[in-house]
Amino acid sequence: MTSPAAKLLNIDSLNFYINDIHILKDISLKADRGEFIGLIGPNGAGKTTLLKCINGINKGSGQIELDGVDIRSMNSRQIAAKAAMLHQDTTVAFPFTVMDIVLAGRYHKLGRFRPEGPEDYAAARRYMEYTDTLKLEKRLINTLSGGERQRVLFAKVLTQETDLILLDEPSSSMDIAYEEQLFKYSYELTREGKTVIAAVHDLKTAVRYCSRLVMMKDGRVIADGEPEAVITRENLRLSFGVEALVYRNRITGLIDFHISAGNSDKRNVKIHVIGGGGSASGVIRQLFERGYSVTAGVFSHGDSDLGCADVFGIKTLACRPFSEIDDDVFNENVQLIKAADMTILCDMPFGRQNIRNLEAAKHASALVIIEDEDPKNRDFTGGMALELYYGLRDKAVVVESARLHEVLP
Fold first, then answer.
1. Measured distance CA(101)–CA(149) in Å, rounded
2. Exposure of 181 by Cβ count < 10 A (0-12 exposed, 13-18 middle, 19+ buried)?
3. What digits encode the pLDDT tens for the residues 15-62?
4. Beta-strand (E) ranges in 200-314?
5. Per-residue pLDDT tens digits for 105-125
6. Cα separation of 127 and 157, whole Å?
7. Among residues 28, 94, 157, 258, which one has the fewest Cβ atoms lying within 10 Å of its Cβ?
């Protein structure tokens, strides 16, 4: 008998082998109603294998309970009444109609010889409308695009009307609009008390929609918890083998990350960026992605360029807003410029507050000026900045931002 306090899913010491290859290693996992759990990790981590074990397709050692009942004591119909799975492969070999495919989700509710009744058709049409596939009901499944088939198969999963829904990289065949919609559907289902466990390849999508992430590597769970606890620099390095900056996105409020190119040949090349007013953000990002050692400034506190540099962990110089650059900060800026192999002057506006950035740029051993807009339109000093700018320009390499990569060392 099922305990009323039983977890919807309880996995204890699950191991799974294919021949002599140990695929899943001592997996223990619990899931409650209303959770949206994202399984994340590199290819070959064991995400799909785990989902197939939960659904009874793969037979491993250890224990898996659905709603307090060991799946080893359940037949396929009984498992289908508890858990429904959307597979990554959308291939359907036979030319069934879309309606026939979706109705197949009701088989566990029907007797061996009982045909589908009005309530089965009503359920099928309800979920087809929900997934925007009702207009396809008379089409043959093998005439649909991959994304259309995926949505039809999702409608079939929903028509099963189970408390647990398993999704194996559900958006792999979908365009971006329907990918977003499918995850929104899944989130809504968890709000209604269902549990969704999805293998997700896009980490940023997983962070946006999942209430909990389970990170896997080589068949083991290496992290399990809320997204901010799982998406860490150390975990990304351990699971995916990448160097990443992890931060909280100021716009979305969610945990976000940026993966560095990590080009060791570039790390010894120092580039100093002079900008402000948002002019340096794209340059900083490009240099970071290419693996250069970057410094930047002088920015005003509150400048978006300063926020961008903070995200990438770049050393910066800053001054008070609406104030001129003082001697101490100016001298620090000169030292960073002298230490740099290249200095980049961005396409920024010039005012009395930042004119000393132009004075500091005179000390550059190699100066690149980005010029997308006529500097006359960016001068708010009555010509003082322009005089300095044109003096720098005569000795610099001048490029448009789109061609910056052509002059980088």
1. 10
2. middle
3. 999 989 999 999 999 999 999 999 999 989 999 999 999 999 999 999
4. 212-217, 220-225, 244-248, 255-259, 270-274, 293-300
5. 998 888 666 788 899 999 999
6. 9
7. 94
> Which burial class, exposed, middle or buried, applies to 322 when counting CB atoms under 10 A from its CB (0-12, 13-18, 19+)?
exposed
Phi-psi category of residue 358: left, alpha or beta, with phi > 0 → left and psi -120 to 50 → alpha: alpha
Closest CA to 150 of 179, 116, 188, 189: 179
Q: Mean pLDDT over residues 263-279, rounded?
A: 84
pLDDT in tens, 206-228: 999 999 999 999 999 999 999 99
- Residue 14 burial (C-beta neighbours within 10 Å; 0-12, 13-18, 19+): buried
Note the pTM of the prediction, 2 decimals.
0.71
CB distance 78 to 32 below 8 Å: no
- In whole angstroms, what is the distance from residue 111 CA to residue 186 CA? 29
* Cis amide linkage into residue 196, ω under 30° from 0: no
- For residue 246, the one-letter residue type is V
One-letter identity of residue 152: V
Q: What are phi and psi of 209, to 5 degrees?
A: -115, -30
